[in-house]
Specification:
Layout (H helix, E strand, L loop, with lengths): L1 H29 L14 E7 L3 H5 L5 E8 L5 E4 L11 E4 L4 H36 L1
Antiparallel strand pairs: 1-2, 3-4
Helix pairs in contact: 1-3
């Protein structure tokens, strides 16, 4: 029964991490054309996952995941030539946020699919637990 609880923990950690990833992608999409109060364009946020490493659990194939940080991307800003724009620099270029809509949507789809896979694993584990309890009756 202890193995079932560990399976729940692993699936839950994956769902938690993917939920945070979906929130970050939603934030990136919401700020696609945003600027900070300082006038600097919004920098895309990135989620960094980390395996919760425990040598004993690795031997059993049990490796939960967690979000280790949410950081700003160091990708360069997009530049467009628009000398009439009030945000243009001396050469007439305007810096735009480094958010790529296509990449963000692909990332969102990937996060949703990963969340669904973890949810399916959680539900299968729950079903196994219920069947085990029924056999004990």
């Amino acid at each position: 029964m202890n193995d079932l609880f560990r399976a729940f923990e692993i699936s839950a950690s994956g769902m938690r991490a993917q939920r945070i990833r979906m929130n970050v992608v939603a934030s990136n999409l919401a700020n696609y054309e945003s600027y900070k109060q300082t006038g600097e364009p919004f920098r895309k946020l990135e989620v960094v996952f980390r395996a919760v490493y425990d040598p004993e659990r690795v031997q059993k194939g049990e490796v939960p995941v967690e979000v280790s940080e949410i950081r700003e991307s160091d990708a360069p800003f997009k530049l467009i030539f628009d000398p009439g724009n009030p945000r243009a620099d001396a050469q007439g270029f305007v810096r735009l946020p480094n958010v790529d809509l296509v990449k963000e949507m692909a990332d969102m789809i990937s996060a949703v699919r990963s969340y669904e896979a973890n949810l399916n694993a959680f539900n299968l584990t729950k079903e196994m637990a219920n069947r085990t309890i029924e056999l004990w009756r």
